[in-house]
Design goal:
It contains 7 helices and 11 strands. It is of the alpha+beta class. It has a 5-stranded antiparallel β-sheet, sandwiched between helices. A two-stranded antiparallel sheet has the order 6-7. About 15% of the residues are buried.
Length: about 230
Amino acid sequence: NQAGKIGIWELDLRTDVSVWDRNMYALYGINDITTVPTFELWSATLHPHDRERAVRQVKTDIAGGVPSDSEFRIIRQNGAIHNIRSLATVVCDATGAAARMIGTDWDVTEIRSLAEQLREEKEALISSEARYRALTEAMPQMVWVLDAALQLEYVNPRWVDYTGLSLASMRMLGLAGAADAAGVLTITAKREAVPPREFECEARLRRSDGVYRWHLVRSVPFHDATGDAGK
């Protein structure tokens, strides 16, 4: 595994001949370190889908005499595909003409794999939240979510229809805007159990016309991405 190891190379732009250190050979999966590393040898290791872009970028950077920062995939002799990050600078001769290119390469395969994993997990979370919202918004029961500080985070449309109170209103009023004093005490006491656990209780909830009616309240604890408990 060459992750984290840096290979150093130099390319003579006049002869197209490179000099690689041992890490470069290892990074590119070339076992014979007596192999003369040319620009053509390097480009031949590139993944077919990345070759044209990577070669074009390097040649453009050389022509412009600007530092090069590129990332591409390579295929090693054993068939393994790796992601390589390459940084290089152009060195000019006394006349100002580009003479050499000096650079460093390192394997970023594990970093890219982790980034892809995090992206997939984020997409899965977003999809899960979307499914959860679609389910709760279609339910005929009132659904409401309290955070660890007993602040309303979510109410479904059935809740708004019944109470006449939007989420914004509920955030201003708090739990007292939804239940009578006894109901607030009951829900709060059960909610503060350690560790949080599922419970059922009866409480009088406020209807949109201001009348309080008895309801069976069922609470299910869950944890958000930070580990804080909600219900």
